[in-house]
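Anyone able to model this chain together with magnesium ion?
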Amino acid sequence: MRIFSGIQPTGRKHLGNYLGAIRQYVEGQDRGDPAIYCIVDLHATTVPYEPARLRERVLDTAAMILAAGLDPARCILFRQGDVPEHTELCWHLCSVTAHGDLNRMHQFKEKSAQQRELLSAGLFLYPVLMAADVLAYRAHEVPVGDDQRQHVELMRDIALRFNATYGEVLVAPEHRIPAVGARIMDLQEPTKKMSTTGGTEQGRVYVDDEPDAIRRKLKRAVADSGREVVRAPDKPGISNLIEVLAVVRGEAPEQVEREFEGGGYGDFKAAVGEAVVECLTPVRERYSELRTDEAALEATLRDGAERARTIASDTLGDVRQAMGVGARSA
Ligand code: ATP
Ligand code: MG
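re: yes, here you go
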């Protein structure tokens, strides 16, 4: 079972990233053979960004997922920009990707609407690069949040079309999306997912937020009318908080509803705040230790890139051979 997933170094990572994705990365380390995790700096350039800060952000993100429990001895952790096979495979995959499919991607529609100055072709091609990330490793499983479901389905189609066109070279992967906590919503706009680059500042709980900031954000989370702590389509705010508490405690959402039956919103929000503080505090503390040693972080990423490249270059050799690109391999 080979596992692959990527995370963007576009800003401080949040509770949604932690519950939807990072938690699964940690769990996957012992099932993955290997488990491969990538800080996708090339994806980060598809929206406006500060070049001078990108390398800092990569180290922030690396330290964050290491603090959450990734162990470089049990997984491969690397930076996408250190392994050029990703971009080469992206181009090859363009030949079996339908333009119309890219046009239908929800993420493209949402993110393109946010662009003011330049709607880059990179944003349009984002899912092809993401397909290349995973397919370069012939991964079987992709742990992601619910928002990436469509992209993983597309990469399956791309892999299958590639194999039908050029011969069996690639593996069509499956997504792994958690049953609860796969789509944590923005606390201020609970109809939108919590996002690193979109949404609201107050609606986003950062993994490295101080306890008081976490308590305050949860206390001020937009609640819905009524006072019942139950999940319902017309109660997106409370439904979201129920999910958060359920995942953080490792309980079923029904159990949370039973506990707070008839209790009102105030006590419930305070309980969610405390549980989130308890969950994130050890990660924040470990993060601030790890983040100070930049040489160690760079060494971890360098070592990871070397190991990743061994696998990816093998796949690229087969892809070039099957496509008839470049000189015949010996
Ligand atoms: P952006 O909104 O700018 O794309 P992001 O918050 O989605 O940023 P990414 O680095 O793109 O961050 O995503 C990393 C992982 O976190 C992905 O697997 C994604 O599915 C997951 N994820 C992102 N947001 C959420 C969320 N609100 N709830 C659960 N999982 C999420
Ligand atoms: Mg995202």
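The two ends are 30 Å apart (CA to CA).
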